[in-house]
Each structure stands twice: as structure tokens, then as C-alpha cells.
Amino acid sequence: MDYFSITNLIISVLYGIMGLLTIHFVFFAVVGLFKKRKFPKAEKKLRYGVIIPARNEEAVVCNLIESVYKNRYPQDKLQVFVIAHNCTDRTAEVARKTGATVYEYNNPDECTMGYAFRYLFRQIEKDFGVKSFDGFFLFNADNVLEENYFEKMNDAFVACDGKSVITSFRNSKNFGSNIISSMYGLYFSYGCRFESCGRSALGCSTRVQGTGYVINSDIVKDGWKYVTLTEDWEFTVDQILGDTPIVYCDDAMFYDEQPMSLKIMWRQRLRWSRGHLLVCTVRLKDIFKKIVKPVKRGGCRHKFSAFDIFVNIMPVCVITVAITVLKHIFYLLSPLFGKSLGEVYGHHLVNFGKTFLFSYIVMIFASVILFILERKRFPKIKMSIKILSVLLWPIFLLVSVPAEVVALFCRNLGWKPIPHTDTTCMEHLSKGHHKTDKVVAVRKIKIAEEIEENKKAV
User: Fold this and answer.
1) What are the distances in angstroms from CA 433 to CA 70, 72, 186?
2) What are the structural domains of the chain?
3) pLDDT tens, 249-290?
4) Which of 46, 100, 321, 395 has the fewest Cβ atoms within 10 Å of its own Cβ atom?
5) Is the overall model pTM greater than 0.85, yes or no?
6) Element (H, E) at 278
7) Distances (CA, A) of 449 to 273, 441, 444, 445
């Protein structure tokens, strides 16, 4: 074998190993196309605390609280807690008027959402007792819930004996606002349908995506300890290490607001990548130990879940870039072994073009399938935005490559809030919701505030 053949073999083996590590993702995606896990209707209605962290969210927090009050679930079984975290606006005042239990916490040095959770659970333990609740729902202030959300999540939670973390379908309330928000909507829906559905259907743990999940109160009996840039990944890894399954409930749906500018998108993606790398750094060793540890009876699914999350938190983009750099170093040395750079790169560019085109088409095809499968759940959007978001979605996914590489060198990357201004409420998203006294009260507060603002303007 000549030098060129040997180097190609080495690079092909390295790429092949990466492919083998991730090939099960395709299997889960195919299963998710055809199978969803269903849960029987639960007679037992458990008591839940509803956790809402809010940082300068006066424009949207009422819509989430209102959607909680409108849910078809016994209101005496739900208690809303809002943590106004480093706020400089009227978030606490507005939330308190709705009847929510509100705490305020200001510490500029503790700015991630995990710190807000940690402080809030301490206060709940002190004032109510964490164990006075069967579980806790974790949301973001910009979320809005479907009217049967708690009912469906309770069904799944009870069916799993309250021992699993239950996550739900994440939709976008500003799906059609522009191309960027539409691609975000596709991204999270893809995670639900092509990642979580198949995993839960086959008994493998999935992961939580930001918010929109319920946990057993036992998990926070000693407080909340996940405060990194991506506390959801850190939380996911710890649950899998502790053999606590994370189960996906497709019938429960909530909406959130997605970024609509390139600047905010890049900031968020960079934060995700940096947080991802941090979790990998501190948890990879523990997960690897769990994978190689001898299997106990009935523990095969937990072990495979550990392998799955091991691959998920690996810096796949950084590793792929490193292999690619190594390949080009080999290529640049080709003239020393009788191959001109023109010959080497001519062959390389043809193969790269074919691979890139095939991958691009596959990703476009996946987004088209997703639009078809979830057509009843996605909000109506303009055809032009739908077409452009489909065509550009592969580029949206590829942003992860530079983001992960840059994040590798951003040691002091801070956390900055994503602004939320979309005031879409439950009525705009679906019809037929019943009203409660608390809902009416929320509406009256909003109307009174609008009247007061108009008076000031006059």
C-alpha cells in the first residue's frame, strides 16, 4: 500500500468509529416514526409544585401562569412558585398579583437558571416542605401549556410509579415569526419525534430539553445542585447515572418562544456548546465507569442508556474537526511520497462534495417528514417561511460545528438572558378552554394595567 492509501485507510477507520458510535441514533429515529409510548388514564391525581424561574419576564410570565390555571386538572393539586431572579422590572409584582407564590433572589454572581432553582427549592423546603408535593414541574417563564398538559403528564408519571422523570413535546409559539424561529421549532420538534419517541418506546432513557418536565420530589429533597450553563444536560446525566429513567410523553405539549435574530441564536448556541463541553469534562469518566461495570440482572437498559448519553455528551463536532485537520496534515505531506497536492485534493473535493450533498439532502428530507408528521401540531406558517426553513435547516444544524470549536476556547463564557417578548397566550394556540376564577383574575390584572398605562400616556 502506498502513502495515500494508508492515510485514507486511517482516516476512514477514524470516521468509521465515529459512525459506529452514533449509528443507533438512526435506529431510534426510525422507531420514532412509527411508534409512540402511550400511558393509561390515571385515576390518582397527584399534587405538584409548578416551578417558574423568571428574569425580567413581566411581559410573558402571566401567560404561563394563566395556562396553568386553565388546565383541566384539579387546581387544589397545583401550586405555582415563581422565582424572580436578578430582576430589574415588575416580574415579581405581576406574578404575585396572579396568586402565585413568589420569591425574589438577587445575586449577579449566580446568574444561571440553576441557581434560581437552587434558591427556590431551599425556600420551598423551609416554608412548605419539599415532600408535601409528589413532584415538581419545571418550566421557563415564556412557556405556555396545552389545556390537558398536567392531565397527560400525570398519567405518565403515575404509570411509571412516580419514579421516572417525565418530559414532554416542545412546540414553538412563534414558529412562523421568521426563518430562524421556524428552524428552532424544527430543531426541538426533531428532538422529540426522532430522538425521544424511539428511546421511550424501546425503554431507553431520553433526555430533558431545557424545561417542560416533571420530577419526583425525592430528587430535590436535599436541594437542587445543577447550576452550570446547561443544567438540563447535567441533570440528565445524573439521573441516568442513578438509574432514574427519563421518559417521554408525546401527548403532553407546551410552547415556548424561540430567538429570532442571528446574534441571539449564536449567543445561545455558543452557551449550549460550552455547557455541553463542561458536562462532558466532569461526567464523562463516571459514565464510562457505568458502561464498563458488570451488568446486574435487569440492568441492560440502564447500561445502554449510559452508553447513549456517553455518545450524546461527547464533543462529536470537535472530534470530527480534529480528524479532518489530521487528514489535511497527511494530505499536505503527500508530495514527500510522490503525490501532488492537485491529485490529492482533486480526489478529495469530489468525495467531499458527494458526501456533503447527500447529507444535506437527507437533512432536508428529515425536516419535510417532520412537517408532514406534526402538521396538526405545528402552528400555521407562511409557505415561504416553511420552504426556506426546510432548505436552510441543515445549515442551522451545522452551526453546532463552529459553535463547539469556539466554545472549546471560551473559558470565561458568561450566561446572558434570552429576551422574551411574545405575549401569545393559550387562546391563540388552541380553542375550547374553560375558565377559572384565577384566570379571570389574571385577565382583570392585565386589563387594569393596560388602562393604567393608557392613563399615563395621556
Assistant:
1) 7, 9, 26
2) 47-266 (3.90.550.10)
3) 999 999 999 999 999 999 999 988 988 888 988 888 899 888
4) 395
5) yes
6) helix 262-292
7) 40, 12, 8, 6
